[in-house]
Amino acid sequence: MALPADAFEPKSISVFREGYSLDRLKSDAIAGLTVAIVALPLSMAIAIASGVTPDRGLYTAIIGGFLVSALGGSRHQIGGPAGAFIVLVAATVARHGVDGLLLATAISGLFLIMAGALRLGSYVKFIPFPVTVGFTAGIAVIIFASQLTDLFGLTLPVKEPGPLVDKLPILLSAWRTASLPAVATAALTIAVILTLRRFAPRLPGLLIAVVVASTISATFGLDIATIGSRFGGIPRTLPVPALPHVTPELLLAVLPDAAAFALLGSIESLLSAVVADGMTGRRHRSNVELIGQGVANIGSALFGGICVTGTIARTATNVRAGATSPVSGMFHALFLLLFTLLAAPLASYIPLAALAGVLAVVAWNMIERPAFAALVRSSRGDAAVLLVTFLLVVFRDLTEGILVGFSLGALLFIGRMSKAMTIGPHAETSPERPLDQGDGDTVVYRLSGAFFFGATATVGAVLDRIADRHRHFVLDFSDVSLLDATAANVIEGTVRKAERAGVAVYMAGVGPDLRRMLEAHELTAGRVRYVATIPEARALIAQAEEVSSRA
Protein backbone atom coordinates (compact mmCIF):
# COMPACT_ATOMS: atom_id res chain seq x y z
CA MET A 1 0.00 0.00 0.00
CA ALA A 2 1.42 3.37 -1.02
CA LEU A 3 2.25 5.80 1.76
CA PRO A 4 0.93 9.38 1.74
CA ALA A 5 3.42 11.93 0.46
CA ASP A 6 3.74 13.44 3.96
CA ALA A 7 3.90 10.13 5.86
CA PHE A 8 7.35 10.91 7.26
CA GLU A 9 7.08 14.70 7.33
CA PRO A 10 7.61 16.33 10.76
CA LYS A 11 4.63 18.25 12.07
CA SER A 12 6.71 21.44 12.28
CA ILE A 13 7.03 21.45 8.48
CA SER A 14 3.32 20.75 8.07
CA VAL A 15 2.47 23.70 10.33
CA PHE A 16 4.55 26.18 8.37
CA ARG A 17 3.17 24.81 5.12
CA GLU A 18 -0.35 25.52 6.38
CA GLY A 19 0.57 29.11 7.20
CA TYR A 20 1.95 30.42 10.47
CA SER A 21 0.67 33.77 11.74
CA LEU A 22 2.02 36.25 14.29
CA ASP A 23 -0.87 35.47 16.63
CA ARG A 24 0.09 31.81 16.65
CA LEU A 25 3.69 32.77 17.34
CA LYS A 26 2.61 34.78 20.40
CA SER A 27 0.47 31.89 21.69
CA ASP A 28 3.28 29.41 21.21
CA ALA A 29 5.80 31.70 22.93
CA ILE A 30 3.56 32.06 26.01
CA ALA A 31 2.94 28.30 26.12
CA GLY A 32 6.66 27.61 25.72
CA LEU A 33 7.51 29.91 28.62
CA THR A 34 4.87 28.26 30.80
CA VAL A 35 6.23 24.79 30.11
CA ALA A 36 9.83 25.91 30.61
CA ILE A 37 8.97 27.19 34.09
CA VAL A 38 7.49 23.79 34.93
CA ALA A 39 10.37 21.86 33.31
CA LEU A 40 13.20 23.80 35.00
CA PRO A 41 13.04 22.27 38.50
CA LEU A 42 11.68 18.97 37.22
CA SER A 43 14.56 18.38 34.82
CA MET A 44 17.14 18.89 37.56
CA ALA A 45 15.21 16.73 40.02
CA ILE A 46 14.90 13.84 37.56
CA ALA A 47 18.60 14.03 36.71
CA ILE A 48 19.63 13.90 40.37
CA ALA A 49 17.27 10.99 41.05
CA SER A 50 18.78 9.22 38.02
CA GLY A 51 22.25 9.30 39.54
CA VAL A 52 23.74 12.10 37.43
CA THR A 53 24.37 15.80 37.97
CA PRO A 54 21.45 18.27 37.61
CA ASP A 55 22.96 20.05 34.62
CA ARG A 56 22.54 16.87 32.53
CA GLY A 57 18.80 17.09 33.08
CA LEU A 58 18.81 20.64 31.71
CA TYR A 59 20.91 19.63 28.69
CA THR A 60 18.39 16.86 28.01
CA ALA A 61 15.43 19.25 28.14
CA ILE A 62 17.17 21.90 26.02
CA ILE A 63 18.69 19.77 23.24
CA GLY A 64 16.31 16.83 23.33
CA GLY A 65 13.24 19.00 23.84
CA PHE A 66 14.08 21.20 20.86
CA LEU A 67 14.71 18.24 18.54
CA VAL A 68 11.56 16.39 19.62
CA SER A 69 9.43 19.41 18.71
CA ALA A 70 11.32 20.25 15.53
CA LEU A 71 11.43 16.72 14.09
CA GLY A 72 8.60 14.81 15.81
CA GLY A 73 5.16 13.81 14.61
CA SER A 74 3.03 15.63 17.20
CA ARG A 75 1.98 19.26 17.25
CA HIS A 76 2.08 19.55 21.04
CA GLN A 77 4.59 16.99 22.34
CA ILE A 78 7.13 18.24 24.87
CA GLY A 79 10.29 16.18 25.16
CA GLY A 80 12.76 15.97 27.99
CA PRO A 81 13.90 13.79 30.88
CA ALA A 82 11.05 11.70 32.30
CA GLY A 83 10.41 10.18 35.69
CA ALA A 84 9.71 6.83 34.04
CA PHE A 85 13.40 6.58 33.10
CA ILE A 86 14.81 7.20 36.57
CA VAL A 87 15.06 3.51 37.43
CA LEU A 88 16.68 2.48 34.14
CA VAL A 89 19.07 5.42 33.97
CA ALA A 90 20.21 4.99 37.58
CA ALA A 91 20.82 1.27 37.02
CA THR A 92 22.78 1.95 33.82
CA VAL A 93 24.96 4.55 35.55
CA ALA A 94 25.62 2.12 38.41
CA ARG A 95 26.66 -0.65 36.00
CA HIS A 96 28.50 1.23 33.26
CA GLY A 97 29.16 4.78 34.47
CA VAL A 98 28.19 7.99 32.73
CA ASP A 99 30.05 7.04 29.54
CA GLY A 100 28.01 3.86 29.33
CA LEU A 101 24.82 5.85 29.90
CA LEU A 102 25.61 8.29 27.09
CA LEU A 103 26.46 5.43 24.73
CA ALA A 104 23.27 3.55 25.61
CA THR A 105 21.24 6.74 25.07
CA ALA A 106 22.75 7.28 21.63
CA ILE A 107 22.21 3.65 20.61
CA SER A 108 18.60 3.79 21.81
CA GLY A 109 18.19 6.75 19.47
CA LEU A 110 19.34 4.59 16.57
CA PHE A 111 16.88 1.88 17.61
CA LEU A 112 14.04 4.42 17.68
CA ILE A 113 14.95 5.78 14.25
CA MET A 114 14.96 2.24 12.83
CA ALA A 115 11.61 1.49 14.48
CA GLY A 116 10.09 4.59 12.91
CA ALA A 117 11.61 3.89 9.51
CA LEU A 118 10.19 0.34 9.65
CA ARG A 119 6.77 1.81 10.52
CA LEU A 120 6.55 0.05 13.86
CA GLY A 121 5.00 3.04 15.60
CA SER A 122 1.46 1.74 15.30
CA TYR A 123 2.36 -1.54 17.00
CA VAL A 124 3.72 0.12 20.13
CA LYS A 125 0.18 1.26 20.92
CA PHE A 126 -0.89 -2.37 21.27
CA ILE A 127 0.53 -2.52 24.81
CA PRO A 128 -2.44 -3.58 27.00
CA PHE A 129 -3.87 -0.91 29.29
CA PRO A 130 -3.33 -2.99 32.48
CA VAL A 131 0.36 -3.22 31.61
CA THR A 132 0.76 0.55 31.18
CA VAL A 133 -1.10 1.27 34.43
CA GLY A 134 0.88 -1.40 36.29
CA PHE A 135 4.34 -0.34 35.17
CA THR A 136 3.55 3.37 35.67
CA ALA A 137 2.42 2.68 39.25
CA GLY A 138 5.49 0.52 39.84
CA ILE A 139 7.80 3.25 38.58
CA ALA A 140 6.05 5.75 40.86
CA VAL A 141 6.73 3.55 43.91
CA ILE A 142 10.41 3.21 42.98
CA ILE A 143 10.77 6.96 42.35
CA PHE A 144 9.27 7.76 45.74
CA ALA A 145 11.53 5.22 47.45
CA SER A 146 14.57 6.73 45.73
CA GLN A 147 13.75 10.14 47.25
CA LEU A 148 13.42 9.02 50.87
CA THR A 149 17.09 9.76 51.62
CA ASP A 150 16.79 13.41 50.58
CA LEU A 151 13.21 13.82 51.84
CA PHE A 152 14.35 12.99 55.38
CA GLY A 153 17.97 14.13 55.07
CA LEU A 154 19.26 10.68 56.01
CA THR A 155 22.94 9.86 56.40
CA LEU A 156 23.46 6.34 55.12
CA PRO A 157 26.31 4.09 56.36
CA VAL A 158 26.86 2.67 52.86
CA LYS A 159 26.10 3.68 49.31
CA GLU A 160 22.38 3.49 48.67
CA PRO A 161 21.57 0.35 46.63
CA GLY A 162 19.24 0.44 43.65
CA PRO A 163 16.84 -2.49 44.24
CA LEU A 164 13.97 -1.67 46.57
CA VAL A 165 14.36 -4.86 48.59
CA ASP A 166 18.00 -3.98 49.37
CA LYS A 167 17.28 -0.29 49.87
CA LEU A 168 14.54 -0.43 52.52
CA PRO A 169 16.55 -2.14 55.31
CA ILE A 170 19.37 0.40 54.94
CA LEU A 171 16.94 3.33 55.01
CA LEU A 172 15.21 1.94 58.09
CA SER A 173 18.54 1.46 59.87
CA ALA A 174 19.40 5.14 59.27
CA TRP A 175 16.13 6.68 60.47
CA ARG A 176 17.81 8.17 63.58
CA THR A 177 19.95 10.38 61.27
CA ALA A 178 16.89 12.19 59.87
CA SER A 179 17.35 15.96 59.59
CA LEU A 180 14.56 18.21 60.84
CA PRO A 181 15.45 21.05 58.39
CA ALA A 182 15.32 18.59 55.47
CA VAL A 183 11.97 17.15 56.56
CA ALA A 184 10.54 20.64 57.07
CA THR A 185 11.82 21.83 53.68
CA ALA A 186 10.38 18.84 51.87
CA ALA A 187 7.05 19.20 53.70
CA LEU A 188 6.91 22.92 52.87
CA THR A 189 7.64 22.20 49.19
CA ILE A 190 4.88 19.61 48.97
CA ALA A 191 2.44 21.85 50.86
CA VAL A 192 3.07 24.81 48.52
CA ILE A 193 2.63 22.64 45.42
CA LEU A 194 -0.64 21.14 46.65
CA THR A 195 -2.00 24.47 47.89
CA LEU A 196 -1.30 26.25 44.61
CA ARG A 197 -2.72 23.34 42.65
CA ARG A 198 -5.91 23.59 44.69
CA PHE A 199 -6.40 27.36 44.80
CA ALA A 200 -4.27 28.77 41.94
CA PRO A 201 -3.77 26.00 39.38
CA ARG A 202 -2.59 28.40 36.68
CA LEU A 203 0.50 29.38 38.64
CA PRO A 204 3.74 27.37 38.20
CA GLY A 205 3.47 25.54 41.50
CA LEU A 206 6.64 23.44 41.12
CA LEU A 207 8.88 26.44 40.48
CA ILE A 208 7.25 28.61 43.15
CA ALA A 209 7.61 25.85 45.73
CA VAL A 210 11.31 25.39 44.94
CA VAL A 211 11.93 29.16 45.02
CA VAL A 212 10.16 29.51 48.39
CA ALA A 213 12.09 26.59 49.88
CA SER A 214 15.41 27.89 48.50
CA THR A 215 14.78 31.39 49.79
CA ILE A 216 13.95 30.21 53.30
CA SER A 217 16.93 27.84 53.34
CA ALA A 218 19.38 30.55 52.24
CA THR A 219 17.89 33.28 54.46
CA PHE A 220 18.03 31.25 57.65
CA GLY A 221 21.20 29.36 56.77
CA LEU A 222 19.65 25.94 57.25
CA ASP A 223 22.05 23.03 57.60
CA ILE A 224 20.75 21.20 54.56
CA ALA A 225 22.21 19.68 51.40
CA THR A 226 21.86 21.82 48.27
CA ILE A 227 22.81 21.52 44.62
CA GLY A 228 25.84 23.69 45.36
CA SER A 229 27.04 21.67 48.34
CA ARG A 230 26.69 18.32 46.59
CA PHE A 231 27.37 19.09 42.92
CA GLY A 232 29.19 22.42 43.00
CA GLY A 233 26.51 24.30 41.06
CA ILE A 234 25.50 24.30 37.39
CA PRO A 235 27.59 25.51 34.41
CA ARG A 236 26.29 28.64 32.69
CA THR A 237 26.96 27.34 29.16
CA LEU A 238 26.16 24.26 27.12
CA PRO A 239 29.01 21.76 26.76
CA VAL A 240 30.78 21.23 23.46
CA PRO A 241 29.14 18.27 21.68
CA ALA A 242 31.29 15.15 21.76
CA LEU A 243 30.89 11.49 20.90
CA PRO A 244 30.47 9.11 23.86
CA HIS A 245 33.49 7.00 24.74
CA VAL A 246 33.16 3.73 22.83
CA THR A 247 34.92 0.41 23.25
CA PRO A 248 33.76 -2.93 21.83
CA GLU A 249 33.27 -4.29 25.35
CA LEU A 250 31.22 -1.28 26.48
CA LEU A 251 29.18 -1.35 23.28
CA LEU A 252 28.11 -4.95 23.85
CA ALA A 253 27.52 -4.37 27.55
CA VAL A 254 25.09 -1.46 27.08
CA LEU A 255 23.00 -2.97 24.28
CA PRO A 256 20.37 -4.40 26.67
CA ASP A 257 20.10 -1.00 28.38
CA ALA A 258 19.77 0.75 25.02
CA ALA A 259 17.00 -1.65 24.00
CA ALA A 260 15.19 -0.98 27.30
CA PHE A 261 15.54 2.79 26.78
CA ALA A 262 14.10 2.48 23.27
CA LEU A 263 11.19 0.29 24.37
CA LEU A 264 10.18 2.49 27.28
CA GLY A 265 10.80 5.67 25.30
CA SER A 266 8.57 4.57 22.44
CA ILE A 267 5.76 3.58 24.83
CA GLU A 268 6.00 6.76 26.90
CA SER A 269 6.28 9.15 23.96
CA LEU A 270 3.43 7.62 21.94
CA LEU A 271 1.16 7.49 25.00
CA SER A 272 1.93 11.16 25.56
CA ALA A 273 1.14 11.95 21.91
CA VAL A 274 -2.17 10.09 22.23
CA VAL A 275 -3.02 12.16 25.32
CA ALA A 276 -2.29 15.34 23.35
CA ASP A 277 -4.47 14.12 20.49
CA GLY A 278 -7.32 13.52 22.91
CA MET A 279 -7.01 17.04 24.32
CA THR A 280 -6.78 18.80 20.95
CA GLY A 281 -8.63 16.64 18.44
CA ARG A 282 -5.47 16.45 16.34
CA ARG A 283 -3.72 13.31 15.17
CA HIS A 284 -0.02 12.59 15.52
CA ARG A 285 2.21 10.57 13.18
CA SER A 286 3.55 7.68 15.22
CA ASN A 287 6.48 6.75 13.00
CA VAL A 288 7.64 10.35 12.60
CA GLU A 289 7.42 10.73 16.36
CA LEU A 290 9.71 7.74 16.87
CA ILE A 291 12.23 9.11 14.38
CA GLY A 292 12.16 12.51 16.09
CA GLN A 293 12.63 10.87 19.49
CA GLY A 294 15.55 8.89 18.09
CA VAL A 295 17.35 11.97 16.75
CA ALA A 296 16.65 13.76 20.05
CA ASN A 297 18.28 10.97 22.07
CA ILE A 298 21.37 11.03 19.87
CA GLY A 299 21.55 14.82 20.20
CA SER A 300 21.09 14.65 23.96
CA ALA A 301 23.90 12.10 24.30
CA LEU A 302 26.26 14.27 22.23
CA PHE A 303 25.73 17.15 24.67
CA GLY A 304 26.02 14.98 27.78
CA GLY A 305 22.29 14.62 28.40
CA ILE A 306 20.28 11.58 29.42
CA CYS A 307 17.31 9.81 27.81
CA VAL A 308 14.67 11.92 26.08
CA THR A 309 11.03 11.02 25.68
CA GLY A 310 7.66 12.67 25.38
CA THR A 311 6.41 13.75 28.81
CA ILE A 312 2.70 13.53 29.50
CA ALA A 313 2.51 16.18 32.25
CA ARG A 314 4.52 18.80 30.36
CA THR A 315 2.71 18.03 27.11
CA ALA A 316 -0.66 18.48 28.83
CA THR A 317 0.60 21.76 30.33
CA ASN A 318 1.63 22.87 26.86
CA VAL A 319 -1.85 22.19 25.48
CA ARG A 320 -3.61 23.91 28.37
CA ALA A 321 -1.32 26.94 27.97
CA GLY A 322 -2.65 27.52 24.44
CA ALA A 323 0.06 26.01 22.23
CA THR A 324 -0.85 25.76 18.56
CA SER A 325 2.19 24.04 17.03
CA PRO A 326 5.58 22.41 17.72
CA VAL A 327 7.05 25.92 17.86
CA SER A 328 5.92 26.08 21.50
CA GLY A 329 8.15 23.11 22.30
CA MET A 330 11.09 24.82 20.60
CA PHE A 331 10.41 27.97 22.62
CA HIS A 332 10.32 25.84 25.78
CA ALA A 333 13.85 24.63 25.01
CA LEU A 334 15.11 28.14 24.20
CA PHE A 335 13.67 29.57 27.41
CA LEU A 336 15.38 26.81 29.40
CA LEU A 337 18.65 27.71 27.69
CA LEU A 338 18.08 31.37 28.62
CA PHE A 339 17.38 30.45 32.25
CA THR A 340 20.59 28.40 32.31
CA LEU A 341 22.68 31.23 30.90
CA LEU A 342 21.29 33.88 33.22
CA ALA A 343 20.34 32.14 36.45
CA ALA A 344 22.66 29.15 36.77
CA PRO A 345 24.42 30.49 39.92
CA LEU A 346 21.08 30.67 41.75
CA ALA A 347 20.55 26.92 41.30
CA SER A 348 23.29 26.29 43.85
CA TYR A 349 20.90 27.40 46.61
CA ILE A 350 18.20 24.84 45.76
CA PRO A 351 17.83 22.32 48.61
CA LEU A 352 17.86 18.69 47.53
CA ALA A 353 14.96 18.11 49.94
CA ALA A 354 12.88 20.55 47.89
CA LEU A 355 13.60 18.67 44.67
CA ALA A 356 12.80 15.41 46.47
CA GLY A 357 9.47 16.94 47.46
CA VAL A 358 8.82 17.80 43.82
CA LEU A 359 9.48 14.21 42.76
CA ALA A 360 7.34 12.86 45.59
CA VAL A 361 4.40 14.82 44.17
CA VAL A 362 5.28 13.65 40.65
CA ALA A 363 5.37 10.03 41.83
CA TRP A 364 1.96 10.39 43.50
CA ASN A 365 0.49 11.88 40.32
CA MET A 366 1.96 9.10 38.17
CA ILE A 367 -0.20 6.49 39.90
CA GLU A 368 -3.45 6.34 37.96
CA ARG A 369 -5.48 5.53 41.05
CA PRO A 370 -8.99 5.40 39.49
CA ALA A 371 -7.73 3.23 36.62
CA PHE A 372 -5.82 0.97 39.02
CA ALA A 373 -8.91 0.44 41.18
CA ALA A 374 -11.16 -0.11 38.15
CA LEU A 375 -8.84 -2.77 36.72
CA VAL A 376 -8.65 -4.61 40.03
CA ARG A 377 -12.46 -4.71 40.12
CA SER A 378 -13.10 -5.39 36.43
CA SER A 379 -11.97 -9.00 35.97
CA ARG A 380 -9.55 -11.52 37.42
CA GLY A 381 -7.55 -11.61 34.19
CA ASP A 382 -7.01 -7.86 33.96
CA ALA A 383 -6.28 -7.67 37.69
CA ALA A 384 -3.67 -10.43 37.34
CA VAL A 385 -1.93 -8.65 34.45
CA LEU A 386 -1.95 -5.37 36.38
CA LEU A 387 -0.63 -6.77 39.65
CA VAL A 388 2.01 -9.02 38.07
CA THR A 389 3.35 -6.08 36.05
CA PHE A 390 3.30 -3.80 39.10
CA LEU A 391 5.05 -6.27 41.41
CA LEU A 392 7.70 -7.24 38.86
CA VAL A 393 8.51 -3.59 38.17
CA VAL A 394 8.80 -2.82 41.89
CA PHE A 395 10.69 -5.90 43.04
CA ARG A 396 12.43 -7.22 39.92
CA ASP A 397 13.00 -5.18 36.77
CA LEU A 398 11.11 -2.69 34.64
CA THR A 399 11.74 -4.43 31.32
CA GLU A 400 10.87 -7.80 32.79
CA GLY A 401 7.63 -6.34 34.13
CA ILE A 402 6.63 -4.97 30.73
CA LEU A 403 7.49 -8.16 28.84
CA VAL A 404 5.81 -10.53 31.30
CA GLY A 405 2.78 -8.24 31.59
CA PHE A 406 2.47 -7.99 27.82
CA SER A 407 2.76 -11.78 27.47
CA LEU A 408 0.06 -12.35 30.09
CA GLY A 409 -2.14 -9.74 28.42
CA ALA A 410 -1.68 -11.45 25.06
CA LEU A 411 -2.60 -14.85 26.53
CA LEU A 412 -5.66 -13.30 28.17
CA PHE A 413 -6.69 -11.78 24.83
CA ILE A 414 -6.20 -15.09 23.01
CA GLY A 415 -8.34 -16.87 25.58
CA ARG A 416 -11.12 -14.31 25.31
CA MET A 417 -11.07 -14.30 21.53
CA SER A 418 -11.13 -18.09 21.36
CA LYS A 419 -14.29 -18.12 23.46
CA ALA A 420 -15.87 -15.56 21.14
CA MET A 421 -15.44 -17.96 18.19
CA THR A 422 -18.51 -20.17 17.79
CA ILE A 423 -19.53 -23.04 15.52
CA GLY A 424 -22.96 -24.62 15.36
CA PRO A 425 -25.76 -25.93 13.12
CA HIS A 426 -27.15 -23.34 10.74
CA ALA A 427 -30.95 -23.09 10.27
CA GLU A 428 -32.55 -21.67 7.15
CA THR A 429 -34.79 -18.64 7.27
CA SER A 430 -37.81 -20.95 7.60
CA PRO A 431 -37.74 -22.49 11.09
CA GLU A 432 -40.03 -25.35 9.97
CA ARG A 433 -37.36 -27.02 7.88
CA PRO A 434 -33.76 -26.45 8.89
CA LEU A 435 -31.32 -27.44 6.18
CA ASP A 436 -29.33 -29.67 8.55
CA GLN A 437 -32.38 -31.86 9.18
CA GLY A 438 -34.63 -33.86 6.84
CA ASP A 439 -33.08 -36.88 5.19
CA GLY A 440 -29.73 -36.48 6.97
CA ASP A 441 -27.73 -36.26 3.72
CA THR A 442 -26.89 -32.55 4.18
CA VAL A 443 -25.53 -30.60 7.14
CA VAL A 444 -24.86 -26.87 7.37
CA TYR A 445 -22.68 -25.32 10.05
CA ARG A 446 -22.06 -21.66 10.68
CA LEU A 447 -18.72 -20.26 11.84
CA SER A 448 -18.85 -16.93 13.69
CA GLY A 449 -16.07 -14.70 15.02
CA ALA A 450 -12.31 -14.59 14.57
CA PHE A 451 -11.12 -18.04 13.49
CA PHE A 452 -7.45 -18.09 14.52
CA PHE A 453 -4.99 -20.43 16.20
CA GLY A 454 -6.50 -19.88 19.64
CA ALA A 455 -9.87 -21.24 18.51
CA THR A 456 -8.75 -24.10 16.29
CA ALA A 457 -8.82 -26.78 18.99
CA THR A 458 -12.49 -26.21 19.77
CA VAL A 459 -13.63 -25.72 16.17
CA GLY A 460 -11.47 -28.57 14.85
CA ALA A 461 -13.02 -31.03 17.32
CA VAL A 462 -16.52 -30.16 16.09
CA LEU A 463 -15.54 -30.40 12.42
CA ASP A 464 -13.91 -33.80 12.91
CA ARG A 465 -17.16 -35.19 14.31
CA ILE A 466 -19.29 -34.16 11.32
CA ALA A 467 -17.02 -34.03 8.27
CA ASP A 468 -17.62 -37.65 7.10
CA ARG A 469 -21.17 -38.40 8.22
CA HIS A 470 -23.18 -36.76 5.43
CA ARG A 471 -23.16 -36.61 1.66
CA HIS A 472 -23.11 -32.79 1.57
CA PHE A 473 -21.32 -30.54 4.06
CA VAL A 474 -21.84 -26.76 3.95
CA LEU A 475 -19.71 -24.31 5.97
CA ASP A 476 -21.03 -20.76 6.27
CA PHE A 477 -18.19 -18.18 6.59
CA SER A 478 -20.34 -15.07 6.30
CA ASP A 479 -19.79 -14.14 9.98
CA VAL A 480 -16.06 -14.93 10.07
CA SER A 481 -14.05 -11.73 10.54
CA LEU A 482 -10.58 -13.26 10.52
CA LEU A 483 -8.96 -16.47 9.31
CA ASP A 484 -5.29 -17.22 9.96
CA ALA A 485 -2.99 -19.92 8.60
CA THR A 486 -3.59 -22.31 11.49
CA ALA A 487 -7.36 -22.10 11.01
CA ALA A 488 -7.01 -22.58 7.24
CA ASN A 489 -4.92 -25.67 7.89
CA VAL A 490 -7.67 -27.09 10.12
CA ILE A 491 -10.24 -26.48 7.37
CA GLU A 492 -7.96 -28.21 4.85
CA GLY A 493 -7.70 -31.23 7.12
CA THR A 494 -11.50 -31.35 7.42
CA VAL A 495 -11.89 -31.21 3.64
CA ARG A 496 -9.29 -33.97 3.22
CA LYS A 497 -11.25 -36.18 5.60
CA ALA A 498 -14.48 -35.39 3.76
CA GLU A 499 -12.88 -36.25 0.42
CA ARG A 500 -11.89 -39.69 1.68
CA ALA A 501 -15.51 -40.31 2.72
CA GLY A 502 -16.93 -39.00 -0.57
CA VAL A 503 -18.54 -35.95 1.05
CA ALA A 504 -19.02 -32.82 -1.09
CA VAL A 505 -17.94 -29.63 0.74
CA TYR A 506 -19.51 -26.23 0.07
CA MET A 507 -18.20 -22.93 1.46
CA ALA A 508 -20.63 -20.02 1.59
CA GLY A 509 -20.01 -16.32 2.23
CA VAL A 510 -16.23 -16.50 1.86
CA GLY A 511 -14.81 -13.00 1.36
CA PRO A 512 -11.82 -12.23 -0.88
CA ASP A 513 -9.25 -12.15 1.94
CA LEU A 514 -10.51 -15.39 3.46
CA ARG A 515 -10.61 -17.10 0.08
CA ARG A 516 -7.00 -16.13 -0.66
CA MET A 517 -5.95 -17.69 2.65
CA LEU A 518 -7.95 -20.87 1.96
CA GLU A 519 -6.66 -21.20 -1.59
CA ALA A 520 -3.10 -20.74 -0.31
CA HIS A 521 -3.73 -23.97 1.61
CA GLU A 522 -4.83 -25.76 -1.58
CA LEU A 523 -8.56 -25.36 -0.96
CA THR A 524 -9.24 -24.52 -4.58
CA ALA A 525 -12.52 -24.61 -6.47
CA GLY A 526 -11.66 -28.11 -7.63
CA ARG A 527 -11.75 -29.47 -4.08
CA VAL A 528 -14.57 -27.37 -2.60
CA ARG A 529 -17.49 -25.43 -4.05
CA TYR A 530 -17.48 -21.71 -3.24
CA VAL A 531 -20.94 -20.15 -3.15
CA ALA A 532 -22.22 -16.74 -2.14
CA THR A 533 -25.16 -17.81 0.02
CA ILE A 534 -26.77 -20.83 1.68
CA PRO A 535 -29.71 -20.88 -0.82
CA GLU A 536 -27.17 -21.09 -3.65
CA ALA A 537 -25.53 -24.03 -1.89
CA ARG A 538 -28.90 -25.71 -1.52
CA ALA A 539 -29.66 -25.22 -5.21
CA LEU A 540 -26.37 -26.93 -6.16
CA ILE A 541 -27.09 -29.75 -3.71
CA ALA A 542 -30.55 -30.24 -5.22
CA GLN A 543 -29.03 -30.44 -8.72
CA ALA A 544 -26.46 -32.97 -7.51
CA GLU A 545 -29.17 -35.08 -5.89
CA GLU A 546 -31.26 -34.99 -9.07
CA VAL A 547 -28.32 -36.09 -11.20
CA SER A 548 -27.54 -38.84 -8.71
CA SER A 549 -31.13 -40.14 -8.70
CA ARG A 550 -31.23 -40.30 -12.52
CA ALA A 551 -27.99 -42.24 -12.54
Automatic annotation (TrEMBL):
Transmembrane intervals: 29-50, 56-73, 100-120, 127-148, 168-194, 206-231, 251-276, 288-313, 333-364, 385-414, 443-463
Entries under Pfam families matching the protein: STAS, Sulfate_transp
UniProt main location, coarse: membrane
InterPro entries assigned: SLC26A/SulP_dom (IPR011547), SLC26A/SulP_fam (IPR001902), STAS_dom (IPR002645), STAS_dom_sf (IPR036513)
Keyword annotations from UniProtKB, A to Z: Membrane, Transmembrane, Transmembrane helix
Superkingdom of this protein's organism: Bacteria
Cell compartment(s), UniProt: Membrane
UniProt keyword annotation of Transmembrane present: yes
Residue ranges constituting the STAS domain according to the UniProt record: 441-541
Membrane topology: Multi-pass membrane protein
Name by which UniProt lists this protein: SulP family sulfate permease
Native species: Rhizobium halophytocola
